[in-house]
Amino acid sequence: MQTNTDSGHNWFSRRQNKERRMSDLSHLVDGSIIPTENIVAAMEQLIKPGDKVVLEGNNQKQADFLSRSLAKVSPDKINNLHMIMPSISRSEHLDLFEMGIARKLDFSFSGPQSLRIGQLMEDGLLEVGAIHTYIELYARLYVDLNPNIALLAGFKADRLGNIYTGPSTEDTPALVEAAAFRDGIVIFQVNEIVDDVSDLPRVDIPASWVDYIVLADQPFFIEPLFTRDPRLITPLQVLMGMMAIKGIYAKHQVQSLNHGIGFNTAAIELLLPTYGESLGLKGKICRHWTLNPHPTLIPAIETGWVESVHCFGTELGMEDYIANRPDVFFTGKDGSMRSNRAFCQLAGQYAVDMFIGSTLQVDGDGNSSTVTRGRLAGFGGAPNMGHDPGGRRHSSPAWLDMKPDDSLLSKGRKLVVQMVETYQDSNKSTFVEELDALAMARDYKMPLAPVMIYASDVTHVLTEEGIAYVYKAESLEQRRAMIAAVAGVTPLGLSQNPEVTAQLRRDGLVAYPEDLGIRRSDASRDLLAASSISDLETWSNGLYKPPAKFRSW
Amino acid sequence: MQTNTDSGHNWFSRRQNKERRMSDLSHLVDGSIIPTENIVAAMEQLIKPGDKVVLEGNNQKQADFLSRSLAKVSPDKINNLHMIMPSISRSEHLDLFEMGIARKLDFSFSGPQSLRIGQLMEDGLLEVGAIHTYIELYARLYVDLNPNIALLAGFKADRLGNIYTGPSTEDTPALVEAAAFRDGIVIFQVNEIVDDVSDLPRVDIPASWVDYIVLADQPFFIEPLFTRDPRLITPLQVLMGMMAIKGIYAKHQVQSLNHGIGFNTAAIELLLPTYGESLGLKGKICRHWTLNPHPTLIPAIETGWVESVHCFGTELGMEDYIANRPDVFFTGKDGSMRSNRAFCQLAGQYAVDMFIGSTLQVDGDGNSSTVTRGRLAGFGGAPNMGHDPGGRRHSSPAWLDMKPDDSLLSKGRKLVVQMVETYQDSNKSTFVEELDALAMARDYKMPLAPVMIYASDVTHVLTEEGIAYVYKAESLEQRRAMIAAVAGVTPLGLSQNPEVTAQLRRDGLVAYPEDLGIRRSDASRDLLAASSISDLETWSNGLYKPPAKFRSW
């Protein structure tokens, strides 16, 4: 036996480092409270060059007081930070790089800022570690991206640091645990500080995980990303929704599901209480949901279609409605929702029958991406929802329906449905020869293309032309023919062989509306259970309070 | 627009039901505290026939006071329960079914009780909902298996119900959240009740998620499942460990990993500071770990190989060692570990390069299972660790090394290594014509066989004969030949064509020890950094306190 222990090794360096930084701060704080006006000075004491910093830009809520404050520190004092952020959503997130405060970025999603990331990379100011899905970014926090600092947002705190995150719990539990339990420094901005824990509606994060709280100069920014106005749903989307319900949901007896965001899936949500009802499907399909609280789901909930909804995050305006539907939503003793993106991502991967969502580009094999050239938009959650989780071992009727043969060694599959119109607009075909993601990979010298959902994971392609049941394809060639058969008058669609398509329809590999007993002329907006935001408000008995931007009355 | 709302619908039925049950209990409780002697009577008030009940039998710790108490309720009052349990570990777990208190079971793992489950099924006393992996069972708690009651275990509570779970946090956060936020009733047994929250080392679960606490009649049961005595490691396992380090870890630059439990992987852990050091690999491989705190990892930690370890659960005897190595382990402000099986499962799926583990049977294609006939042993976590997560989008050098070609549409893969001796004992070949799991599926009329790891997920098969780099196989036939080439003198191994095997070795598809520059005669137990439990204790400077059953001095 050899015992080459370096007995002089210090195994407490992270903790001592944290204690040192905190002790240097004592003159600027009042217990756990950083006075609002001291936040920049406090950051300059607590954060050191090169630190790994988690900043809660997440899908909806933003720790924006903290991000704005971080952008005010002196780059002479704090620089070369390694930022770890679920979502890059605000301009100051990237100002950090322009100013030299930060240098490296690991992230999951960037909507409006995606073009600027590319520019900063070209200018040599920003180095991307990797682009992740949400859940793999959380995962890395526990492995090789462990944060020194976590900057987070909550609704309320008591003076000890117990946190009420409110209905928008979202990413917070996954982010805070990685820092709190590895001697990282945890700072929460909150909208309100109360004296005692008993003054909080409930505790979402215990004070013993939190180092500092700071009252923000204004409530944290939150955006209604999941509201779709029914007025903008087209008859074509109604037709696609009818096909989805009859040709996929009912056919496979889909009990539990996740809807991506968009007008296509909003149409389905609004067709359940009408078209779905007329098919006698209530109680037979769509009983359990993992999704953000889409306002367009209200009519289905009110008519008794929905047994449960577990949410990634919340949606502005839905707070009172959710609090008054605790039989459906996950709520605390205080009545408000508890969302949790990490657990909802788990649920959506391992416990639901189906994912259905839209995309911007689909190639002839069925690979898809929302990436367009120059925009490093990231992945968000779609690749996780839109794949067949190979670690699943329990079955359900829909899952088993995807089993390719009777072998005991064959598995079922999660249904992954791509629901797209063949044209994005009059000039832009959804079906492309090559995904822009490939050009992107070549431009940025990525080892692989940023594909959102791989062909091998897709089970159905649904367009206004029909449904391709691609899980039944016996060869790549047949798969391509099936996709071409529903690609309409796009170049891919025009390449189809009419005889092959006719045979695919006879064999049940492709179904056009008429094959499903659906008349195109029946696909009217009149079938939607709500035709406006105002209708949704009415359905909710006034509990849904649409944000001003969606009001038109 | 139609508004068919059933305006008389009660959306608060779950909450009212909970309030009613709790109010009926007021005479038996003191605030949040159920007096120990009242637990059976309290259960008879709180639990109703047909309830979905989560019971924390998990991998290590057991809410055994609550399970023993539940087995004492009157089956006339409580019957037909639907039990949801990560692990069936104790006899009273199944007594519940024999007595008619419970009827349906959803679970993940059952070690010693697996034979009895099959018997109870045959007797018509137990109906299995499904057998899951841990993480998919948690996932279903948020979808269609939402609990009415959760029976959980913690170390300490204050009088309000704030819980300190101790280093064995494990499954608790995932289980409690599903009940607490959908009007389930949450009951914790604890080893100690303190007056005030400030008397707790830290808070792991806030009181606002907890309904009742009860002082257990004795500390909860916890078993050291992950301790392997180095004395029992054989020279053959040393040889396999050397091949793993040189032919897999070093070859692919594995930075982050999960080790399954067993003597094979224990050998690797003990070879890193010796053989690994001699190859100059320190700091280049095995830096980040997701695994339970194996005592055999102590020498690698002490010699500076290990930067971080995130744990599913804890291991008896390792508490002080962990608390004194906070630079490596995830610990709270109080110093003790925070484990978390849900997050560690996430980390192991989405953030590590490799899983390596043993199994009992491998078929010629590379499918494997630990199932033997009549024993419904369940899956645990191996299928999740041992698969390629299709939702991963970031890359690492090892992951990219599995990329089959240069196409931008090709992905890397997680390394999934099956490490087995060709014979379990002198009569039992590990390589079989057909897995027993298939006979099991036929016996119990399962829709698919309980396969632990599918061939399509395996990248390497490692035996004492050599390594088959099966991720390189270009056909199923070649794959079979590669596996046969390392199957020794098993029937499968004897079926190999020597010329084919020679070619596979020349092509780098199979490597024997000599191909890796390893002499079989060098594979001595002397290479192990520790040869006994006592050695491990010495390495730890007395911080590791081996449980009595592992002490022999």
TrEMBL record, chains A, B:
Q: This protein's superkingdom?
A: Bacteria
The family database entries (Pfam families) matched by this protein are listed as:
Mal_decarbox_Al (PF16957)
Which molecular function GO terms apply here?
A: transferase activity
Q: What is this protein called?
A: Malonate decarboxylase alpha subunit
